[in-house]
Inverse folding.
């Protein structure tokens, strides 16, 4: 009789240990996953900030002049900039960056799109981009034109 009671207690302790260990493992994985997502988002933000700085550093200054002639060089950097903006929009749309980061990027896009040169180049290139992004950029440009 004592042996079966002992076996039952041992089985209960083993099951409780297994359940406890499983719960602890699930909690640990959830916490690590959350931290990994934060780290991933920080990496994305850092990478896109670096790309933005590289593009702006190399972009010809005349792009931001009131009146400028589109050259091969300005077109090249305008396209790189629009590609970057499109990717940032995609990241936000798919919740890979949070709203705070997107608002920061979007404010920068609105500021840069005050450039008549970038607006002109956008008219030439906009068909290359997806509909939602194209609509967003056109809303920014229309707002900038009305505010000017």
């Amino acid at each position: 009789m004592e042996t079966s009671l002992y076996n039952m207690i041992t089985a209960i302790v083993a099951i409780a240990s297994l359940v406890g260990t499983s719960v602890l493992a699930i909690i640990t994985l959830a916490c690590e996953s959350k931290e990994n997502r934060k780290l991933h988002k920080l990496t994305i933000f850092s990478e896109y900030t670096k790309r933005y700085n590289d593009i702006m550093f190399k972009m010809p200054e005349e792009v931001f002049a009131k009146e400028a002639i589109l050259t091969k060089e300005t077109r090249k950097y305008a396209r790189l900039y629009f590609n970057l903006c499109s990717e940032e929009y995609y990241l936000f749309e798919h919740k890979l960056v949070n709203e705070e980061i997107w608002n920061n990027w979007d404010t920068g896009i609105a500021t840069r799109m005050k450039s008549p040169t970038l607006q002109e180049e956008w008219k030439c290139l906009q068909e290359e981009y997806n509909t939602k992004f194209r609509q967003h950029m056109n809303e920014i440009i229309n707002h900038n034109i009305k505010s000017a």
Remarks:
- The chain has one domain: 37-147.
- The longest helix spans residues 2-58.
